[in-house]
Amino acid sequence: MDSEPPVFPVSVKVAAAVIDNTHTDVAVLGFSNCIVILVTQLSSVGSLVQCVVSQLADSTLVDPQHMADQLREASVPVDVKFLLGNPGACAASSLYQILATATSQRKHEQNPSDVRPVILGIGLDLPRAYKVSSMDDGMPDLGAFSSTMNALALLVDECRVW
Question: Can you give the pLDDT at residue 57?
Fold first, then answer.
């Protein structure tokens, strides 16, 4: 009997690259109710962050073409919530939130009809330069982190399941 093997019910794609001189693994799993993206340089899941694209409360009262123009002009708001990991104890929690928001917004831009939330597992080996600015005021240095974010975005795009 020549029957096709059953298709795995979850779309899974993986990729790896060297980012900031550190081996980085990415796995993207497309479940029916959410998308799970794991990004790690530490061989662990790290912190889990849930990202949900905010729904516009008055979307039924707004002209769809006008709303589409607004969404192209402005960033889509995203609700971010740590599910695992202590954001207060992690020096990189602000960077993780920024990465999670950017990833969710990028997914929404690429496929606005996909409303599944994103669960992002992030375990990055961040240099101190990313964690605080040169003024050492405790705020992350987004300029130093932007090239890493771009490299991670390209790696996640290789694994798109949406």
Answer: 37
At 122, is the secondary structure helix, strand, or coil?
strand
Query: What's the structural domain count of the chain?
Result: 1
This prediction has a pTM of: 0.79
Whether the Cβ atoms of residue 16 and residue 26 lie closer than 8 Å to each other: yes
| Residue 2 located in a structural domain | no
Q: What's 59's DSSP letter?
A: G
Q: Is residue 162 part of a domain?
A: no
Task: Note the pLDDT of residue 54.
Answer: 85
Six-digit token pair at 45? 């899941």
Query: What pLDDT sits at residue 126?
Result: 81
Task: Tell me which residues of the chain have a pLDDT lower than 50.
Answer: 57-61, 73, 133-134
Assess contact for 46 and 122: CB atoms under 8 A: yes
- In degrees and rounded to multiples of 5, residue 27 shows phi and psi of -130, 135
* DSSP single-letter state for residue 161: -
Q: Which domain holds residue 60?
A: 11-157
Is position 132 within any domain?
Answer: yes
Instruction: Please report, for the domain that includes residue 98, its CATH number.
Output: 3.30.230.90
> 2, 43, 17, 45: which is closest to 156 by C-alpha?
17
